[in-house]
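Before relying on records like the one below, remember that each one covers exactly one chain. Contacts with other chains, cofactors or solvent are not represented anywhere in the record.
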Amino acid sequence: MTDETQTAKLRRDALDILLAGVAAADPAAAVRRNLEKQGRVISFGTSSLPPVEVGGRILLLSAGKAAAAMTAAAVKQLGGLIHAGSIAMPLGTEDSSDAETLPGTITQWWGGHPVPEMGGMAAAGDALALARSAGPDDLVLCLLSGGASAIWSAPAPGLTLDDLREATEALLRSGAPIDAMNAVRKHLSAIAGGRLAQAAAPARVVTLAISDVIDTTPDAIGSGPTLPDPTTYAQALEVVRLHGVELPPRALRHLQAGAAGEYPDTPKREDLEGRVDFALVLSVEDALSGAAEMARARGYESRIMSATEQGEAREVAGRIAAVVRQAKAEVDGPLTLLWGGETTVTVRGEGRGGRNQELAVAAAAALEGEEGIVLGSMGTDGRDGPTDAAGGIVDGGTLQRGIEAGLDATATLHANDAYPYLAATGDLILIGPTGTNVNDLIVALIHPEREAESG
């Protein structure tokens, strides 16, 4: 097999392995495993939550990139017990087949991501109104997935949607990790940081969540609308200082006023004690297991290296490239290495791209000229940053293809302009929204030269 043919096969396998990871993170299947009813008793499957006997109504609130699939599965599992609901999905998924099957009692909204839009503000208002209507015998069932922080966009009193938009854009540019970003977003929101659960008092609130955060920190998923918030206004201000976040003036004044005690802080554990339950039903570990299974089916030894990869995207790319080079020197047969997690990008340029695309370009630079290695990085939601690409798959020839297109990888990274670079080299992953979101997947496929020669 020629080097060119071998690389093409590795690239096909890399994409199939990544897609198998996405398929294993099926939101509908996760809800079906964790939501059952017998009469008016609701049990929560593989989670450790106690069953709930519903004396009143079930009100369903759902938001995030997997909201449509999760809601459709819940409707099938609970049937007519759901009295009413409100679902918020990302813009661009209006034609979702899952959304089309939902009953008219569930109001549908579409909000922007990663930057809030007007639809998300309306969706958050509807969810809060429905929560406030709940009585002591009602159950509020919240189905939460990644992206809900932006898709449910409810400005805190005195703030506007533009304030939230500008604050979100500033946080995204800062390179702050997701838990730090969420500490700020919770304190600029009327729904995040436990505010939704607070609005539902005195009803019982049960949340089934799909994690898109490192270490599956529950209150970081969707900025924790139904969980106590361990962060404070003062901590949010410290994030702003530490990461140099240029907040709009009203948003900064709001945080300062909150830190001075002029606003009540987000609900803490004692405020929600005994009323809220939470179960994680899907995470990046599920996606990694599915990807590893596909790799083995394709004849590769498979190793899951980490589910918590994080850091600046180009620095992570360098670390991973070094590991891949070392593995190639040591193995005798085809090998797949897998990572899960979420990197960050400190945006200094004016280009287009996302963290997975930037990681891919940086990895291509580190693996220049290497034969028998392919590396792919993608968001499991099918969208990387504010682009239509999920990420990129690169090989030892990517930089040469970039040179032939008149592009320079170093300049591309400096300008944060990975999207047009990977488009020119033929290395973008374009799969569209997947309907799930469990962090990012990185795969490296290695076909050592001595194994190829012996074959």
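The mean pLDDT is 94.
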